[in-house]
Amino acid sequence: MYKKYVKRILDIIFSLMLLPPVSLVILICGIFIKLEDRGPIFYCGNRLGKDGQVFKMYKLRSMKVNAPDLRNADGSTYNSDDDPRLTKVGRILRKTSLDELPQLINVIKGDMSFIGPRPDLPEHINYYERDEGKKLEVLPGITGYNQAYFRNTVEWKQRLKNDIYYVDNISLCLDFKIFFKTIEGVILRKGVYVTSQSDSVKGEH
Questions:
Q1: What is the C-alpha to C-alpha distance for residues 8 and 117, in angstroms, rounded to an integer?
Q2: What pTM was estimated for this model as a whole?
Q3: Which of 125, 146, 195, 197 lies 20 to 30 Å from 153 when distance is taken between CA atoms?
Q4: What digits encode the pLDDT tens for the residues 97-147?
Q5: How many domains does the chain have?
């Protein structure tokens, strides 16, 4: 009942309540992004959603225009405090997670939920093994079990295991725990960056 209906109803209610103040914050951040390098305010990237459907995920742009896409050895996105691809404003947005705010639009559209597994890149579906694709049974989230408890400190395969744990144990109680743990992580800036990297591809993460 909760997984199929109540969770979506709560997403709609809370997203509509948060839309006015979040829109104001996005507007303010957007002005600073534009003033720094005159580039686009938003970054829209393809992500893997529920049932394997690809959707456009919205973020405030934190990197320089046409920045290369650096990856870790496990294929996950490279993050570092001294990442030269970040703009000055983007560095602040990344540390405070303000760059994720436009995903509220994805929640309203039904592409995402407030709480759920963080969405992978579309090509990652080709690397799922055994029951790892089970994470696609639910909507991806703005935050989730991994984001709250581990952020960027665990490898991608371990994140998939944690995603499956979430799908198997999804409940209102667990979602509230993840929500408050996420707030704690954002305030204390836990696990924002990882330090390993590998080859570059193309585009912002």
A1: 15
A2: 0.85
A3: 125
A4: 899 999 999 999 999 999 999 999 999 999 999 999 999 999 999 999 998
A5: 1
